TrEMBL record:
<feature type="domain" description="Hydantoinase A/oxoprolinase">
    <location>
        <begin position="230"/>
        <end position="513"/>
    </location>
</feature>
<dbReference type="GO" id="GO:0006749">
    <property type="term" value="P:glutathione metabolic process"/>
</dbReference>
<feature type="domain" description="Hydantoinase/oxoprolinase N-terminal">
    <location>
        <begin position="36"/>
        <end position="210"/>
    </location>
</feature>
<feature type="region of interest" description="Disordered">
    <location>
        <begin position="1"/>
        <end position="38"/>
    </location>
</feature>
<dbReference type="Pfam" id="PF05378">
    <property type="entry name" value="Hydant_A_N"/>
</dbReference>
<dbReference type="Pfam" id="PF01968">
    <property type="entry name" value="Hydantoinase_A"/>
</dbReference>
<protein>
    <submittedName>
        <fullName>Hydantoinase/oxoprolinase family protein</fullName>
    </submittedName>
</protein>
<feature type="compositionally biased region" description="Polar residues">
    <location>
        <begin position="1"/>
        <end position="17"/>
    </location>
</feature>
<dbReference type="InterPro" id="IPR008040">
    <property type="entry name" value="Hydant_A_N"/>
</dbReference>
<dbReference type="InterPro" id="IPR045079">
    <property type="entry name" value="Oxoprolinase-like"/>
</dbReference>
<dbReference type="InterPro" id="IPR049517">
    <property type="entry name" value="ACX-like_C"/>
</dbReference>
<feature type="domain" description="Acetophenone carboxylase-like C-terminal">
    <location>
        <begin position="533"/>
        <end position="682"/>
    </location>
</feature>
<dbReference type="InterPro" id="IPR043129">
    <property type="entry name" value="ATPase_NBD"/>
</dbReference>
<dbReference type="Pfam" id="PF19278">
    <property type="entry name" value="Hydant_A_C"/>
</dbReference>
<dbReference type="InterPro" id="IPR002821">
    <property type="entry name" value="Hydantoinase_A"/>
</dbReference>
<dbReference type="GO" id="GO:0017168">
    <property type="term" value="F:5-oxoprolinase (ATP-hydrolyzing) activity"/>
</dbReference>
<dbReference type="GO" id="GO:0005829">
    <property type="term" value="C:cytosol"/>
</dbReference>
């Protein structure tokens, strides 16, 4: 390792120094700066990032059930470490897993569905496709709303408007039935309510008057065509809404008691929103934590010299992979969680059940497998010493030497190395391997293969060459696996942000406020009347600005979902302030050619119009003043492709490394929240803001 003067410019051919901007913000604190905190709840740990006095303080505490207890514990811990009172916090942003846990564990509300007569079974019929074409035993997930709680009303709406009005007396009778069934939430999805919501509005108004439970109406949740997806998204919103309402309400109360501002909640679209907005639009909170991580990666790393960033977030339960291009996270409106379609805009995150706590096991054929079952935070991996006995990826990293016996996970949790070794020995016996070390190598290799496939799915399978991207690794376990993944993908640049162990929490500090609205129009582009389209855009823009905290500061973007006539899928292209038919057509042709390799001389349809309002946030300053004297010692570690013998890896305290320092592998950089592995043939460099950039080349031994 070489220490250079901290004031020397840090040079890198592909990734430039990035100190986030400090302009803007709100509620100046005692010294004219903002004191902001972000808290992200994961499956194993709750991560905290506190920006105070132009410095960054991070913390990690075990996640709890209910989640708000761990949130407040982490908040207080970070404040104690920073030497401030929680009441001095100016802004509080939060990401949680309440909604996604309710879906995965089927622990949501007792929900009823109200739909048009004859369409009771839309949720069950779906798209009449199979989850796995060649699996004869594959089963679709059970609908969130069972058939006995799906009800029909007599009404008829077409794309041209209402043909049969709804009968108010019938709806009141239905309300009595729902009350007798003790339902906890109601979803309403009437046929073609996206085109004319009059009947659905009447049903929703009556049920809200008659019942004391939340009511989700499809024209408010997703004003798009496709009955199955619209109904599914509305049912998801209703299903998770009581849980979100209880959780957010409790957290707001507890925050006020602590003198902390009400939390602003990260949405799946990568933007934050006030508590009342997300309580009314609960479906927007799915995957809020992974979205925050991608936002944090985009804010930490400049990508102007590469095609983009592959973000790799490996936590305790799962790994999340996404793309950042042109400084912005890729988004999608076509997502599923546990087989349930959700059509709201969200950061395009691919999740795989391979995290630090993922349990390794042997299948019926004798093959070694990893995940998706996880040890969670309690009892956790065997090395936690909390009663866990099953081998996990973290235990494998302990046996491989990446995590040492003196390492304190989260800054305070000491490790039981012998328990990890015993768990891997039992796995070795079951798998027919020679030793705990061989089992650990196998677990590491299988976990990496699983994550490599996920990265290929968002790059190679979408026409992107991963070699043109930088891999940004974060999460508690991500930096330990990143270089090995990069080797298999032939990626020669790995970036580990300084707050990499809590980057989702850091992303909350950097997030903008964002709101989306959509409406189906379904017109031929050449025959479309721009005046009619502008009228729709006016309504959409009004909707998103109504949610914005500062409409005057909001930046509005307009877009259109287009397709060739006869296609069953759409591509989204931007739409100018004045709708230009020729410009939109040209953008669609170009987008189609990029996505599929060809464009057609065919008529183009405008299917949906979209509007997004963004109130820009102010990214926190990350100041790195490593004092030097970072050498901790050496440790024997085993690396893929480096033979069967262990290598002496130099161990550093990463936070003490001076800006401009270079680290040659094999080396291990330790932080309270994460550990970074620099394998042989890799070299790392510390940038001015503390970011570590690893590149291929060099071996210190």
């Amino acid at each position: 390792m070489t220490d250079s003067n901290p004031s020397d410019p840090t040079r890198n051919a592909s990734i430039t120094d990035h100190t986030p901007r400090t302009d803007g913000g709100a509620s100046p604190s005692r010294d004219g700066t903002d004191t902001r905190i972000g808290v992200d709840v994961g499956g194993t740990f709750t991560d905290v990032a506190l920006s105070v006095d132009d410095d960054l303080v991070t913390a990690k505490v075990p996640s709890t059930d209910p989640q708000h207890i761990g949130v407040l514990e982490g908040l207080r811990k970070a404040c104690d470490d920073a030497g401030i009172d929680p009441a001095e916090i100016d802004e509080f942003a939060h990401a949680m897993t309440v909604s996604v846990n309710a879906l995965l564990e089927r622990g949501g509300a007792k929900t009823a569905l109200v739909t048009t007569e004859g369409f009771r079974d839309v949720l069950e019929i779906g798209r009449q496709d199979r989850p796995d074409l060649y699996d004869l035993e594959a089963e679709k997930p059970e609908p969130l709303v069972p058939r006995e709680r799906r009800f029909e009303v007599s009404e008829r709406t077409t794309t041209d408007g209402v043909e049969e009005p709804v009968d108010p007396d019938e709806v009141r009778d239905l309300a009595a039935t729902l009350r007798d069934r003790d339902v906890e939430a109601v979803a309403i999805s009437l046929l073609h309510a996206y085109a004319d919501p009059e009947n659905e509005e009447r049903v929703a108004e009556t049920l809200r008057e008659e019942l004391d439970v939340p009511v989700s109406a499809s024209h408010e949740v997703l004003a798009e065509f496709r009955e199955f997806e619209r109904t599914s998204t509305t049912a998801v919103d209703a299903y998770v809404r009581p849980a979100i309402d209880r959780y957010v309400g409790r957290l707001v109360e507890e925050s006020e008691d602590a003198g902390v501002p009400a939390p602003r909640i990260m949405q799946a679209n990568g933007g934050i929103a006030d508590p009342e907005t997300v309580r009314d639009h609960a479906v927007t909170t799915t995957l809020s934590g992974p979205a925050a991580g991608v936002v944090g990666a985009a804010a930490t790393v400049d990508d102007e010299d590469v095609e983009g960033l592959v973000t790799f977030d490996m936590g305790g339960t799962s790994s999340d992979v996404s793309l950042v291009r042109d400084g912005r996270a890729e988004r999608t409106t076509d997502a599923e969680i546990d087989g349930l379609p959700i059509r709201t805009p969200m950061v395009d995150v691919n999740t795989v059940g391979a995290g630090g706590g993922s349990i390794a096991w042997v299948d019926a054929g004798g093959a070694l497998r990893v995940g998706p079952r996880s040890s969670g935070a309690d009892p956790g991996p065997a090395c936690y010493g909390k009663g866990g006995t099953e081998p996990t990826v973290t235990d494998a990293n302990v046996v491989l030497g990446y995590i040492g016996p003196e390492t304190a996970l989260g800054g305070e949790m000491t490790l039981d190395v012998e328990a990890a070794r015993e768990a891997l020995e039992r796995l070795a016996d079951e798998a027919g391997l020679e030793s705990a070390l061989e089992a650990a190598r196998g677990v590491y290799r299988v976990a990496n293969a699983t994550m490599t496939r996920t990265i290929r799915s968002v790059t190679v399978e979408r026409g992107h060459d991963p070699r043109e991207f930088a891999l940004v690794a974060f999460g508690g376990a991500g930096p330990m696996h990143a270089a090995a993944l990069a080797d298999s993908l032939e990626v020669d640049r790995v970036v580990v942000p300084r707050p990499g162990g809590v980057l989702s929490a850091f992303g909350l500090l950097a997030a903008d406020e964002s709101y989306d609205a959509v409406r189906t129009v379904g017109v031929d582009l050449n025959a479309a009347d721009p005046t009619d389209l502008e009228a729709v855009y006016d309504d959409l823009v009004a909707d998103v600005l109504a949610d914005a905290s500062d409409p005057d500061a909001a930046q509005v973007e307009r877009a259109a979902d287009c397709r060739y006539a006869g296609q069953s899928f759409e591509l989204t292209v931007s739409a100018d302030e004045e709708f230009d038919v020729e410009a939109v057509a040209e953008r669609f042709h170009e987008a189609h050619e990029r996505a599929y390799g060809y464009a057609l001389d065919e008529a183009v349809e405008v299917v949906n119009l979209r509007a997004t309002a963004t109130v820009p946030g102010s990214e926190p300053t990350v100041r790195h003043e490593g004092p030097g004297d970072a050498l901790v010692g050496t440790r024997e570690a085993h690396f893929p492709g480096a033979g069967t013998e262990p290598r002496q890896a130099t161990v550093y305290d990463r936070n003490r490394l001076v800006a401009g320092s270079t680290v040659s592998g094999p080396a291990i950089l330790e932080q309270a929240e994460s550990t970074t592995v620099v394998p042989p043939t890799w070299t790392g460099e510390i940038l001015a803001d503390g970011t570590l950039v690893m590149t291929q080349g060099g071996d210190s031994q």
